[in-house]
Amino acid sequence: MSIRHIIKPYLIMKNLYILAAVILAITTSCKTIDKSSKSNDNTEFQKSITIQGIAQNPEGVEYNKNNQTFLLSSLNAAPIIKVKLDGTFEPFTSGEKFPLSTAGLQIDYKHNRLLVAGFNGMELYDGDPTTKGTSFLRIYNLETGVIEQDINLSFLAPEANAYFANDIAIDNDGNAYISDWYARVVYKVDLDGTPSIFWSNETEIPSGPNGLEFHPDGYLLISILNVNDKGLYSDYGLIKVSANNPKSAKIVDISNSGFTGFDGMIINSKGNIIGVTNNGTSPGGNTLIELSSKNNWQSADIINSKEINASTTVAIIPNNKYYVINQNFMSSTKETWTIEHIRF
User: What is the rounded CA–CA span in Å between residue 135 and residue 185?
Assistant: First the structure.
């Protein structure tokens, strides 16, 4: 999630292409092995993977189990990078006709695809009230990183004040759902690449969709939230939306005070949601929490919670191990980023 008044400094960049070129410098820095975090192939994972020498400004992180690498998006409109467990990295995506800022990532193993939420960050934050950005779904070959489809989404919501494609989920049939935080809609793109509006927020909570995940029982769980003038999450909630009947959307009842809306979120093998939420006291002060439901997500409770460094989202690796991407919205050209293992 990118907050207007927090990430605005990154728009002072003189040239997105210069920032993209920075990724050619490759440096490694990894220290400690967490031997408890092993996949079924005995891969050893780091407690903290440090990536140096890159002005990536990543908002999204995804773990590719096919080759034991992490993928990082780029608010600075650089290519998505592929990061090995030792911290070395290389550009992964290619073939686009024009650069876009990228946010959420989603791997579709069944169809050998990487799905990417792209938006025109430079236009969105250029201070010109006549421009309002654009939202795209970019689809890449998961093995080669070459773009296969580039789908404009924002034309579907012409009355929106602005566009910010933020996160992606995939259902059992391969349909993709993309949240547009500023347009306050969720788009749907089928396997043929045909886009449509899937859901608009008509609940009593006046905010836009951010993180989202598809539950294998046939519905989406969608986090909605705003950010107030203090940089804290506000007007937040978790919404359950049937894939077959989006008009039946219901607010999930979460009584715990520790939930203040999700940015990035995933569903683990137990059917619980793991997500990054604001701590409610400071901008960039974040908590990783685990939500569990005993009644098919009519309500939910927090069963785990841990304060973390500033972050936007979480990736899951085998055996339900969680890694967050540490973020710094005040320093978009920072050249050191970490992917950190979090234990509850």
Answer: 11
Residue 319: which region, alpha, beta or left (left: phi > 0; alpha: psi -120 to 50)?
left
Give me the domain span that covers residue 338.
4-342
Q: How many CB atoms lie within 10 A of CB 314?
A: 22
Contact 117/82 with Cβ under 8 angstroms?
no
Give the percent of the chain with pLDDT over 70: 88
CATH number, domain of 46, equals 2.120.10.30
In contact, 323 and 308? CB cutoff 8 Å = no
Would you call 72 helix, strand, or coil by DSSP?
A: strand
CA-to-CA separations, 124 to 119, 218, 254, in angstroms, rounded: 8, 34, 33
The owner of tokens 């710094």 is 328
pLDDT at 327: 80
pLDDT confidence band for 276 (50 / 70 / 90): very high
Write down the pTM of the prediction. 0.89
Considering only CA atoms, which of 199, 149, 146, 208 is closest in space to residue 177? Answer: 199
